[in-house]
Design brief:
Blueprint (H helix, E strand, L loop, with lengths): L10 E9 L3 E8 L4 E7 L5 H19 L10 E5 L7 E2 L14 E7 L3 E2 H7 L11 H20 L2 E2 L8 E3 L5 E3 L6 E2 L21 H4 L10 H16 L9 H11 L4 H10 L3 H10 L8 H17 L10 H10 L10 H4 L8 E3 L13 E3 L10 H10 L2 H18 L5 E2 L1
Parallel strand pairs: 12-13
Antiparallel strand pairs: 1-2, 2-3, 3-6, 4-6, 5-14, 7-9, 8-11, 9-10
C-alpha cells in the first residue's frame, strides 16, 4: 500500500514530449528515480473512444501478466479528479455517484528515447552517424516479428501498426504500443467489431480499404502494415502515401503487380462496376520489372532526393526486399503469415524460449514467446455500453478497470 503520510505526487520532473487528439504524453520520474512515460487522456466525452480506452487498459493488464520484451506494459494507472487538486486515493471516493466525476485518466508505462517515425525522418540525411544498416533493419524487423507472433498467439490483431506506434531506445530495443484499436478473434478466426476505419491510411491493407463485412479480415492486416513499415525504414518515407482511400489504392495498384488471383479477390470484396473499372484502370500487370527492381529504383531516387547526387548509395539486402514483397501481397490469403515469417531464414536471430542460444546478430538473440493465455474482450458488454449511450456509465467502467489494476498490484492508484 502507498504510505498514507505521502503528500507529494508519485511522479516528478514532468515534461511534455507529445500530444494528440486524445491527450498528452509526458516524461517523468518516479520517487526512486526511474524514468517513465505518462499518457494523459483528457477527452472522455466520446463513448466509442472511451470504450477503446477500456479495451486498451484491459490489454495492457494482460501484457503485464504475460510479458513480452517487445510489447508495452503498464506500470500504473490513475485518474485526475476535478474535485481534488492534489493526489487522492481511489478508495477515498468510491461511491457510485462519484465514480464518473473525473476528467482525465493517466496510464504510466516505460519511457523510451524515441519512436520509429522520428528515427526514420532523423536519418533521412545519410552520414556515418545517421545511417541505418542491414544489421539495424534485421534487428528492428526481428523484434517486430517476435512481438506480432506473441500478439497472434494471444489472438490479438493490433490494427494500427505504424512507425509512431513503435518506440525505440538507443540500444535499438523496441516495443509496440497503442492498443486502442486492437481486436480479438472469434472462434471462426475473424475479429469482432470490425470496421474499415482502422489503421492509419498509409499502412492500411486492401481488404480494409475495400472492406466487406461478409468476408471481414484477420491478423494478415498487421502483416501488410509491417511490410509498409519495413519499406519506409529503407525509403525514409511512406511507400504508399495516399491522400484519400482512392489515391491509396491507386498507389498500391501502380506499384504492386496484380495477379489474376488478386483481381478475383478484390472484385469479390466489391463487385460495383465503378470499383472494377477503377482496379482495371490502375492495376499493374505484365511489368518488365520485378518488385525488387521497382523497389530499388524507388530507393535510389529517394536517396538522391534526400542526399543529392555524387554520394555512394548503400546497397540493400535482396533477401530483405524479397521478404517485404511477401508481406505486400494484395490477396491476404496469399500473403506470408506470421507463422511463416518466424521460420524464414532472414530471421535467424529469433530464438525459442527457454533455450535462447546466442545468434550471429550483433545485438543479441531475440526471444520467440508464445502467449500462455489467449486474450478475450467482452464485446457484449461493449455493445451494451454503446446501447446505453451514457458516457458516465463508460467512465465508471474505466474507473473500475483502474481500481482492479491497483488491487491486483497491491497498491492504491492515485490521481494527480
Amino acid at each position: 500500500m502507498i504510505n498514507k503520510n505521502m503528500n507529494k505526487s508519485n511522479y516528478t520532473n514532468l515534461k511534455k514530449i507529445g500530444s494528440g487528439a486524445y491527450g498528452k504524453v509526458y516524461s517523468a520520474k518516479t520517487l526512486n528515480g526511474e524514468k517513465v512515460a505518462i499518457k494523459e487522456i483528457f477527452d472522455l466525452r466520446d463513448i466509442i473512444d472511451s470504450i477503446k480506452l477500456i479495451r486498451e487498459i484491459q490489454m495492457l493488464k494482460h501484457f503485464n501478466k504475460y510479458k513480452h520484451p517487445n510489447i508495452i506494459g503498464i506500470k500504473d494507472a490513475y485518474i485526475k479528479d476535478r474535485s481534488f487538486g492534489k493526489m487522492k486515493s481511489l478508495t477515498s471516493h468510491r461511491t457510485t455517484s462519484s465514480k464518473h466525476c473525473y476528467e482525465r485518466v493517466c496510464i504510466v508505462s516505460d519511457l523510451y528515447d524515441t519512436d520509429l517515425h522520428k528515427l526514420i525522418h532523423r536519418y533521412r540525411l545519410d552520414t556515418p552517424k545517421t545511417r541505418l544498416t542491414d544489421s539495424h533493419y534485421e534487428y528492428f524487423a526481428s523484434q517486430l516479428v517476435s512481438g506480432l507472433y506473441y500478439l497472434a498467439t494471444a489472438d490479438i490483431i493490433h490494427r494500427d501498426l505504424k512507425p509512431s506506434n513503435i518506440i525505440l531506445n538507443s540500444d535499438c530495443s523496441l516495443k509496440i504500443i497503442d492498443f486502442g484499436l486492437s481486436r480479438t478473434k472469434n472462434t471462426d478466426g475473424i475479429a469482432r467489431g470490425q470496421t474499415d476505419y482502422v489503421v492509419t491510411r498509409w499502412y492500411r491493407s486492401p481488404e480494409i480499404i475495400l472492406y466487406n463485412p461478409q468476408y471481414g479480415y484477420d491478423k494478415q492486416v498487421d502483416i501488410w502494415s509491417l511490410g509498409c513499415i519495413l519499406a519506409e525504414m529503407i525509403l525514409k518515407r511512406p511507400l504508399f502515401d495516399g491522400e484519400d482511400y482512392k489515391d491509396q489504392l491507386k498507389k498500391i495498384f501502380q506499384f504492386i503487380e496484380m495477379t489474376d488471383d488478386d483481381f478475383k479477390y478484390l472484385t469479390q470484396l466489391n463487385k460495383k462496376p465503378t470499383t472494377i473499372a477503377f482496379i482495371n484502370n490502375y492495376k499493374l500487370t505484365n511489368s518488365n520489372q520485378t518488385f525488387n527492381e521497382r523497389f530499388k529504383e524507388l530507393y535510389r531516387s529517394c536517396f538522391i532526393a534526400d542526399n543529392g547526387k555524387g554520394i555512394e548509395i548503400p546497397e540493400i539486402n535482396d533477401e530483405f526486399i524479397n521478404l517485404i514483397e511477401k508481406m505486400l501481397i494484395i490477396n491476404p490469403n496469399k500473403r506470408i503469415t506470421i507463422e511463416e515469417l518466424i521460420k524464414n531464414p532472414y530471421f535467424k536471430s529469433l530464438c525459442k524460449i527457454p533455450d535462447s542460444p546466442k545468434s550471429d546478430n550483433e545485438y543479441g538473440a531475440i526471444p520467440l514467446i508464445t502467449s500462455p493465455k489467449r486474450f478475450k474482450i467482452n464485446y457484449d458488454f461493449e455493445e451494451e455500453l454503446i446501447e446505453r449511450d451514457s458516457i458516465n456509465d463508460v467512465k465508471e467502467k474505466i474507473y473500475d478497470e483502474v481500481e482492479i489494476f491497483a488491487t491486483e498490484n497491491k497498491f492504491e492508484s492515485l490521481s494527480l
